[in-house]
């Protein structure tokens, strides 16, 4: 599996996929990336040391993902990341976090010592779809509550139950209330049989093709578009 890539286009950066401890939630119905989680600390450290060594700092921007939340990287690996950020002159760091860690977001952001963005996988602002269909267990009163915690979210498009109107509403919320976003076209996998809605995906590809020109909203037409994973 490729774990290091360079994204040269929008928001140019290096991206590294590490292995982490098991996701604290682990029950989202569409998620198969947790199959990369492990309790083998030596393996986590081996992967981190091999992949972090590839980072050059060429764009002064680095994203690190670990098929879960950054808090699920052992502390010595997080320390190694922090050192790397300083050694390579990284001026923007991006990582992911699940909603349940929100009480420690401020601490996590301060930990790395450089401007850091936490990506949160909200997937949709529709409560029923998010919690009953996708099993996210993420509850909030309004998008504004999410926007107070982060300026960067991920949305998921093309799964059972979504309508064009609901997708439009999610996209409007993303575009008006958040600065950065990553829209993932749902990729079927072994853990999500029957979840794909190919019609919604086909419509979205056409209706939102213009996002290719948007400076801060990225669309992953395939979940390996960043060049890592698969
Ligand atoms: S919180 Fe994220 S990593 Fe954990 S199961 Fe859900 S989508 Fe997967």
Could you outline the blueprint of secondary structure elements for this entry?
Layout: E1 4-7, E2 13-17, H1 41-52, E3 61-65, H2 75-87, E4 92-96, H3 105-111, E5 116-123, H4 127-133, H5 143-147, E6 152-157, H6 164-177, E7 180-185, H7 198-207, E8 217-220
Parallel strand pairs: 2-3, 3-4, 4-5, 5-6, 6-7, 7-8
Antiparallel strand pairs: 1-2
Helix pairs in contact: 1-2
This protein binds iron/sulfur cluster.
Iron/sulfur cluster is lined by residues 23, 25-28, 31, 33-34, 67-68, 98, 121.
What does this structure look like?
With 230 residues, the protein is an alpha/beta fold. The chain has a single domain (4-220), classed as TIM Barrel. 30% of the residues lie in helices and 19% in strands. It has helices at 41-52, 75-87, 105-111, 127-133, 143-147, 164-177, 198-207, and strands at residues 4-7, 13-17, 61-65, 92-96, 116-123, 152-157, 180-185, 217-220. Helix 1 runs parallel beside helix 2 (75-87). The longest helix is centred in the last third of the chain and has 14 residues, at 164-177. The chain is globular and about 45 Å long. The mean pLDDT is 96. Iron/sulfur cluster (SF4) binds next to loops. Residues 23, 25-28, 31, 33-34, 67-68, 98, 121 line the site of iron/sulfur cluster (SF4).
Distinct compounds present: iron/sulfur cluster
Number of strands: 8
Number of helices: 7
Largest beta sheet: strand ordering: 1-2-3-4-5-6-7-8
Oligomer status: single chain
Radius of gyration equals 17 Å
Please provide the ordered H/E string of secondary-structure elements.
EEHEHEHEHHEHEHE
Alpha-beta classification:
alpha/beta
Taken from the alpha-carbon principal axes, the silhouette is globular
**CATH architectural type:** Alpha-Beta Barrel
Q: Kindly state the mean pLDDT as a whole number?
A: 96
Biggest beta sheet summary: 8 strands, mixed
Give the CA-CA distance, first to last residue.
7 Å
CATH homologous superfamily label: Aldolase class I
The share of residues in helices is: 25-40%
Total domain units: 1
CATH topology name: TIM Barrel
Which stretches are poorly predicted, pLDDT < 50 over at least 5 residues? none
* Beta content: 15-25%
CATH class annotation = Alpha Beta
């Amino acid at each position: 599996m490729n774990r290091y890539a360079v994204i040269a286009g929008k928001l140019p950066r290096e991206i590294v996929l590490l292995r982490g401890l098991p996701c604290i939630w682990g029950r989202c119905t569409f998620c198969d990336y947790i199959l990369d989680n492990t309790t083998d600390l030596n393996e986590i450290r081996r992967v981190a040391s091999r992949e972090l060594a590839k980072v050059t700092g060429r764009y002064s921007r680095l994203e690190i993902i670990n098929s879960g939340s950054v808090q699920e990287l052992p502390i010595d690996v997080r320390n190694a990341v922090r050192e790397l950020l300083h050694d390579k002159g990284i001026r923007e760091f991006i990582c992911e976090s699940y909603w349940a860690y929100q009480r420690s977001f401020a601490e996590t952001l301060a930990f790395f010592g450089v401007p850091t963005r936490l990506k949160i996988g909200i997937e949709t602002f529709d409560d029923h779809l998010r919690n009953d269909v996708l099993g996210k267990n993420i509850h909030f009163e309004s998008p504004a509550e999410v926007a107070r915690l982060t300026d960067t979210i991920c949305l998921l498009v093309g799964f059972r139950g979504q309508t064009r109107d609901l997708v439009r509403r999610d996209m409007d919320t993303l575009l008006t209330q958040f600065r950065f976003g990553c829209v993932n076209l749902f990729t079927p996998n072994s853990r999500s049989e029957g979840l794909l809605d190919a019609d919604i995906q086909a419509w979205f590809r056409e209706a939102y093709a213009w996002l290719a020109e948007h400076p801060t909203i990225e669309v992953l037409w395939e979940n390996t578009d960043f060049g890592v994973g698969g």
